[in-house]
Design goal:
The complex is a heterodimer of chains A (242) and B (589). With 242 residues, chain A is an all-alpha fold. Chain A has helices spanning 11-27, 31-36, 40-46, 54-67, 82-89, 93-96, 122-141, 150-161, 177-193, 205-210. Chain A has one domain (4-102, 115-215). In chain A, helix 5 crosses helix 9. By secondary structure, chain B is an alpha/beta fold. Chain B has helices at 17-28, 55-60, 114-117, 119-126, 145-159, 196-207, 254-262, 314-323, 416-426, 470-490, 561-579; strands at 3-4, 8-13, 33-36, 73-76, 84-85, 167-168, 171-172, 213-214, 224-225, 231-232, 268-271, 275-281, 288-294, 300-310, 350-354, 370-373, 392-397, 430-437, 446-454, 460-465, 494-497, 544-546. In chain B, a hairpin with a 5-residue loop joins strand 19 (446-454) and strand 20 (460-465). In chain B, helix 1 packs parallel to helix 7 (254-262), helix 1 runs parallel beside helix 11 (561-579) and helix 5 (145-159) crosses helix 11 (561-579). Classes of the chains: A mainly alpha (242), B alpha/beta (589). Chains A and B meet through helix 8, helix 9 and helix 10 of A and helix 2, strand 5, helix 9 and strand 19 of B. The complex binds flavin-adenine dinucleotide and iron/sulfur cluster. The site of flavin-adenine dinucleotide has 40 residues of chain B, from helix 1, strand 12 and helix 11. Iron/sulfur cluster (SF4) binds next to loops of chain B. Chain A: This is Gluconate 2-dehydrogenase. Chain A: InterPro entries: Gluconate_2DH_su3. Chain A: It is an enzyme of class 1 (oxidoreductase).
Chain lengths: 242, 589
């Protein structure tokens, strides 16, 4: 059974470094600076997860890469370090479930109208969700999720989303696959679009792609200028520009 | 053993809008006033630029909102269902800490209308017997427009409200809302600027013969000093408004409008991280002796007081009344009892219009900027033939312009390359046509204590029994047609909508609806059907006054705070001018 670390596809690396060049170009810095800056992909490779185990980390890299792939439209989840964002979120009060009401009794099978009703905090949801998805993937395709070709990864993710993957067959009655997917997707989008201080949206690349100016937060003139594309790039909470 | 604090004249529980108003009004009268606030202190300096410009922290992780860990609610649709806790914030997001929800509200300062205050009278005049659904429990507010308007007027001055006057002392003014109740004074400040979506909506509705006006705003349009001497800076359209604390000292909050002044009074002080669990009663049951709270060390403390003001937000007030055994709990079968009855929420929803060739720059916006029509407001159209009572305001605004909140084109995949392409094409190219709709009280929607779930102090959670009202769903189908007509007039590339259907059910989570919860401890003329008299004084315990939207007998389509604040000023006046001289029931039952 394939349990060795999976490899991330090559394409994202290339796109990631192109974005690096583009942003340097905007700052007017030339080659010497360029040489000193590691690519976002190299940085991601060097990142040591604070919460996820090595196997879980490979899953996260592979899943995020499919949820927001790198392509000609713009940067993907790996270029923008979304898995780093999610890893860091796990150690926050949100990840630990400290903000939620987590007293029983729990009714994990309640209608979706009631929102989250499972008996675990986010950390446990991820831990179980990843392991169960790998089990599902091994039964269906004989391989861990991260070892599957892209098309099959997408098929597994779709099975999760549509709640076709039935985790109760692996003895987990409380975890609904569709819900695990929803949270994974939501956190992936958060990591893509949040301020870079949380570990994702590396170089504000996602903000640049959609023309969101970040934390500039002052537009007394622009409220009066209608139907003209805003010309300035984003600023982060810590004051970086891109 | 329980700790005991020094006695005060007035104890205020909860330091949001209502608590701050009562604080300053009663401190000015010379009373020794203390406020107890469950959450943290929140100073303006904590929210200086750029800290609030953080979508993850404020919108997604609810940084300044009531954490379900500290106070959750349980929810069910009807009495035969088992209620489950709202484990993470969803449909409504209460405030927490000094300032309460007044720190992260949107700042739309729409008022109810004279018709809203006298709904029962209106219903009797405009609907034949049997024309309305049997389940409705419509009631009049026990105050008149003339009584309450001067207090809403004063609150407008406190906030520095910015808007266009539509009705000045009975004379209709060009450009304002011709359907509004008569104002005793014009808005203190001119309206906020229109963003592109607001301009388009204004044009379209004007062309259709409707009456658009600028959203009344508690974010000031120009530099302003309010009656308490507080200086408020003009809004800079930062784009982080609803759910965020203002980074610019512009959106009226208890902090910007009242608290800095209030803290200067020697006869006022406040304690934070003081979680009140109960109002204590005298042995005769007719007066309160004070309140018990759990302090930051987890110790139980008794705070004696001559007057107790509950201002913990409507839902929390109802829970405290129930946990203190004040007033008889409502029974939906016998319809006896008063605490918990007439609980209402409010309706949202709308159309999203995508324009491939327009640049909306949605990040350049203020929460309350926008344009509105009240043409379909309660009483402004005859609806007896249509089978419903009530109405909605229809508007276009852009409360925030952040990317995670962005609408995505209809039919786009939710992930993968297709999603990313759609995000790129959608962000900055859409606008909303939205509604806020009235919610009638019914026999079966009510509040009580949950029999199973408790908070970390062992106190039962509040149980909300609530589902959409058929009368209101019919109203929404009508509004949908009207909104679709406006949408078509605007001629977008494509559009989608999320208006409720006739068979929709309330979802407590995960999507935000609004925090305009009302009812549960309503004001009225009759102690058998209301918890509070016309001065918001408890019928049962005369030195207990309860501030908040819990007093509304049903919910209107306006945002609640103008009325919540107006009622607080009205009640404070009654305490100062009548109650202090002669403590006892202000209305004889
Ligand atoms: C996102 C959002 C947008 C909104 N937008 C608008 C708008 O545009 N226009 C409008 O009119 N209204 C709006 N509202 C509603 C508005 O915020 C409320 O009507 C208003 O703040 C209510 O004031 P309050 O003083 O009754 O309660 P709050 O402001 O909620 O204050 C209650 C305080 O009591 C404290 N408290 C609660 N329980 C206890 C306890 N047991 N012991 C001690 N302290 C306690 C809370 O921590 C809180 O600080 C919005 C609300 C939200 C959440
Ligand atoms: S939009 Fe205006 S009022 Fe709202 S938070 Fe920004 S500066 Fe304050």
């Amino acid at each position: 059974m394939a349990n060795e670390p999976c490899r991330i596809g090559r394409r994202p690396f290339i796109i990631g470094s192109l974005i690096g060049i583009a942003s340097l170009g905007m700052k007017g810095g030339v080659s010497s600076v360029f040489a000193a800056v590691p690519s976002t992909a190299d940085e991601l490779k060097q990142y040591q997860p604070v919460f996820f185990t090595a196997e879980e980390w490979q899953f996260m890299l592979a899943a995020c890469d499919r949820l927001i792939p790198s392509d000609r439209e713009g940067p993907g989840a790996l270029d923008t370090h979304v898995p780093v964002f999610i890893d860091k979120q796990m150690l926050t009060p949100y990840g630990k479930g400290e903000d939620w009401y987590m007293e029983g009794p729990f009714d994990s099978h309640a209608s979706l109208l009631f929102g989250y009703q499972m008996p675990f905090p986010l950390q446990v949801l991820y831990r179980k969700g990843i392991s169960l998805t790998n089990q599902y993937s091994r039964i269906k395709y004989n391989q861990n999720f991260c070892d599957l070709p892209a098309r099959m990864k997408d098929a597994v993710l779709t099975d999760l989303q549509k709640n076709v993957a039935d985790f109760s067959q692996f003895g987990e009655a409380d975890l609904n696959a569709g819900y695990f997917f929803t949270r994974l997707l939501e956190n992936t989008k958060e990591g893509y679009l949040a301020d870079p201080q949380y570990g994702g949206n590396k170089n504000m690349a996602a903000w640049k792609m959609i023309n969101f100016p970040g934390a500039r937060a002052s537009f007394p003139q622009w409220i009066k200028i209608h139907n003209v594309k805003y010309p300035l790039g984003p600023v982060s909470l810590s004051g970086e520009q891109a | 053993m329980k700790k005991i604090n020094d006695a005060v004249d007035v104890i205020i529980v909860g330091l949001g809008w209502a608590g701050s108003i009562m604080g300053i009004e009663l401190a000015q009268a010379g009373l020794k006033v203390r406020a107890l606030e469950r959450g943290e202190d929140r100073l303006n300096s904590d929210y200086a630029y750029p800290k609030p410009a953080d979508e993850l922290a404020f919108t997604k992780r609810h940084k300044i909102m009531q954490s379900p860990h500290d106070a959750a609610f349980t929810i069910r649709h009807n009495a035969s269902e088992t209620a489950l806790p709202m484990r993470e914030l969803g449909a409504f997001r209460l405030g927490d800490g000094v300032g309460g929800a007044g720190l992260h509200w949107t700042g739309m300062i729409t008022r109810p209308t004279p018709v809203d205050l006298k709904m029962k009278t209106y219903a009797d005049e405009h609907f034949k017997r049997g024309e309305l659904d049997e389940e409705l429990r419509i009631a009049d507010f026990p105050v008149s427009w003339e009584e309450i308007e001067p207090h809403m007027d004063f609150f407008d001055k406190v906030c520095g409200s910015s808007g266009e006057t539509g009705n000045l002392r009975g004379v209709i003014q060009q450009g304002g809302d011709p359907f509004e109740g008569a104002r005793s004074n014009p808005f203190p400040n001119k309206p906020l600027e229109d963003s592109l979506n607001a301009t388009l909506f204004r044009q379209a509705t004007q062309e259709m013969g409707l009456h658009p006006y600028s959203m009344p705003s508690a974010a000031v349009s120009v530099p302003y000093t309010n009656p308490y001497g507080q200086q408020i800076a003009p809004c800079n359209y930062c784009g982080f408004c609803q759910f965020y604390s203002c980074l610019n000292y512009s959106k009226a909050s208890p902090q910007t409008a009242i608290l800095d002044r209030l803290k200067q009074f020697n006869n006022f002080d406040y304690k934070t991280r003081a979680n009140v669990i109960r109002v204590e009663k005298h042995a005769d049951g007719k007066t309160a002796t004070g309140v018990t709270y759990i302090d930051e060390n987890g110790d139980e403390v008794f705070q004696p007081a001559s007057i107790v003001i509950l201002s913990t937000f409507g839902l929390n007030n109802v829970r405290l009344l129930l946990n203190s055994s004040i007033g008889k709990p409502y029974n939906p079968i016998t319809e006896e009892g008063v605490i918990g009855r007439n609980y209402t929420h409010q309706y949202g929803g709308g159309f999203t219009l995508f324009f491939d060739n327009l640049e909306f720059n949605p990040f350049a916006t203020a929460g309350p900027t926008g344009t509105v029509i009240s043409d379909y407001g309660t009483g402004n159209v005859e609806t007896a033939q249509l089978g419903f009572i009530g109405g909605a305001k229809i508007y276009s605004s852009q409360p925030t312009g952040t990317p995670m909140a962005a609408a995505i084109k209809k039919g786009a995949p939710s992930w993968g390359s297709g999603w990313k392409k759609a995000l790129k094409e959608s962000y900055g190219h859409s606008m909303g046509v939205k509604l806020e709709g009235s919610n009638m009280a019914t026999r079966g929607n009510y509040l009580d204590l949950d029999p199973v779930y408790k908070d970390r102090f062992g106190m039962p959670l509040l149980r909300v029994t609530y589902d959409y009202v058929q009368n209101d769903l019919r109203m929404l189908q009508y509004m949908k047609e009207k909104m679709e007509a406006i949408t078509k007039h605007l001629n977008p590339t494509q559009y989608s909508h999320n208006i409720l259907k006739m068979d929709s059910h309330f979802a407590s989570s995960p999507n935000y609806v609004n925090t305009h919860n009302a009812g549960g401890a309503i004001m009225g003329d009759n102690p058998r059907t209301s918890a509070l008299n016309r001065y918001l004084q408890s019928w049962d315990v005369h030195n207990l006054f309860v501030m908040g939207a819990n007093a509304f007998p049903q919910n209107f389509y306006a945002n609640p705070s103008a009325m919540v604040a107006g009622l607080a000023y009205w009640s404070a006046k009654a305490i100062r001018e009548q109650y202090l001289k002669n403590p006892g029931p202000l209305v004889q039952a």
